[in-house]
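Hey,
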Amino acid sequence: MAAERAAERERERSLPRIRLDLPRERRARFLPEYDPEAFGRISERIARFLGTGRFIVWMTITIIVWVLWNIFAPPSLKFDEYPFIFLTLALSLQASYAAPLILLAQNRQDDRDRVNLEQDRKQNERSIADTEFLTREIAALRMGLGEVATRDWIRSELQDLVKEMEERRDGHRGDGLGDHGGLFPSGGDRGSDVPDR
């Protein structure tokens, strides 16, 4: 039993260690490799061309020339007689390749649209969050400004104080205190600022 464990440990040590910090080596493949992005770009170009009026015009001209050549050309130069089987085969082949290329181009466009929509959604979320933040900040500023004394408020408070002082002064004059008592003495006693003790 111990000999088997020792042999197994020795076998594990002899195997090359797999390192996780390095990429795996590429395995040999039997199928040909291709770049999916390059193939997708080519298919989009073909699909775009198939969807243009230029393609329809060229295809119509080709079919008309084909039919006219095989009807009016000398028999030795005709390559597709009246049922035009070769033309039918060519058009079927073109359609069988065009459909998957168009679907591939549409799938790539859907992927791009999905990415754009996701980016738009994230941008909208950020805009909403920014708007909510700014709304809270403006509300806090308004509440803070409600507690801050404005120039008009200070002016009205000072006017009220001046009016109240004038009323008190006028009220004390009526009591017989005159200028010597009251709130605003008129300076008859201009001696020391220190009160008598």
